[in-house]
Amino acid sequence: MDNDILMFFDKMPEMLPLYETIENKICTEFEVVRIKASKTQISFSKRYGFAYISLPVRKKKEWPKKCLILTFGLSHQVIHPRIAISTEPYPQRWTHHVIIQTTDDIDEQLMEWINEAYGFSMVK
Questions:
Q1: CA dihedral defined by 86, 103, 15, 20, rounded to 10 degrees?
Q2: pLDDT at site 61
Q3: Are 57 and 94 in contact, with CB atoms under 8 Å apart?
Q4: Distances 38 to 9, 18, 86, 90 between C-alpha atoms, Å
Q5: 52, pLDDT greater than 80
Q6: From 1, 11, 45, 117, which residue has the greatest number of CB atoms within 10 Å?
Q7: 65 and 32 in contact (C-beta within 8 Å)?
């Protein structure tokens, strides 16, 4: 495990196993994925970033205290109960945030969104 990733989870170490599950799924699904940890997020990229993991730093009242936030971008807005927030920072570039609390949340639906975001990142 990369030291930067371990440091990322310093304040919430109980979320590391959940992150490892996401990382394994993404690395199994996509070839040659680059993973980069910064102070505020862990990014997954090929040509460009397509999925990002962050901790709930700016907690919303209704969000759980312990969770991961998975962010991905698409050309369109996805309306789904699992999407906590979606914004359009640029025309036809929608950013979506999904709360992940358990490994059950890393399911086929989430992987479909990540797969679509991967494809979208390749044609930017």
A1: -100
A2: 72
A3: no
A4: 11, 18, 23, 24
A5: yes
A6: 117
A7: no
| pTM of the predicted model as reported, rounded to 2 decimal places | 0.93
Residue 23, token pair as written in the block:
């990382």
Mean pLDDT of 15-40: 93
The 10 Å Cβ neighbour count of residue 73 is 20
Using pLDDT thresholds of 50, 70 and 90, give the confidence band for residue 1: low
Q: Specify the length of the chain in residues.
A: 124
Q: What is the mean pLDDT of residues 19-27?
A: 96
Structural domain harbouring 55: 3-122
Assign 40 to helix, strand or coil. coil
- How many distinct structural domains can be found in the chain? 1
Torsion of CA 85, 41, 121, 95, to 10 degrees: 10
* Closest to 100 measured CA to CA, from 69, 59, 57: 69
Structure tokens at 94: 């929608």
List the structure tokens of 51: 């999925």
